[in-house]
Amino acid sequence: MHVWSTVAQATSGLLQQSADPAWPWAQRARSLLLGRVDWVTRALAPWTDRHFTLHPCLCDIWHDHVLFEGDTVSGLIDYGGLKIDHPAVDLARMLGSLIEDDEHLWEIGLDAYSRVQPLATEERGFIRMLDQTGTVLGMVTWLKWLYCEGRAFENRQAAADRLAKLVERVEGWRK
Fold first, then answer.
1. Tens-digit pLDDT profile for residues 7-61
2. Mind giving me the DSSP string for 46-113?
3. Residue 34 belongs to what domain range?
4. How many Cβ atoms sit within 10 Å of the Cβ of residue 138?
5. CATH no. for residue 15?
6. How many structural domains are present in the chain?
């Protein structure tokens, strides 16, 4: 299904969802997506013909999947998305969820990774692009899960909070 069709389908009945804690966030997401769904395709298009080294990636590594003891990483959970991909996928997801849009912390994170595995300048740009496009597509995914597929979440408020975090990040880009 085309992304915009998913958004239109997901939000067509939102007026009847006013008791749902995700409803106000879904409304805001829909208005944000109006100008960004086509942007995702345009933003990623220049990267489609690039060739990068691939290796195993978790593909769903975000702050709740990184366990800490104090300031030290003590473990990673949820290997359900594991596949062969570019490390930019994991770096974008992890850094975006941990530090969002703090440019200084992004540089620290990318520099730390580069000390173990060097990153080309273009790869750094690719990582940032994946974070931004992934944030936009994350809103689409949550709208799809909540309103197209009607997925039941044990904690609907937690689902609303996840959508809210994505909406607030994208809204912050306008400032």
1. 666 656 554 566 899 999 999 999 999 889 899 999 999 999 998 889 999 999 9
2. GGTT-----EEE-S---GGGEEEETTEEEEE---TT-EEE-HHHHHHHHHHHHHTT-HHHHHHHHHHH
3. 3-172
4. 22
5. 3.90.1200.10
6. 1
Q: In terms of Cα–Cα distance, which of 33, 37, 7 is closest to 171? A: 33
| CA-to-CA separations, 115 to 102, 111, 170, in angstroms, rounded | 20, 6, 30
**How deeply is 130 buried, as exposed, middle or buried, from its count of CB atoms within 10 A (0-12, 13-18, 19+)?**
buried
Tell me the C-alpha distance between 160 and 153, whole Å: 10
pLDDT digits (tens, 9 = 90+) for 67-104: 999 989 999 999 999 999 999 999 999 999 999 999 99
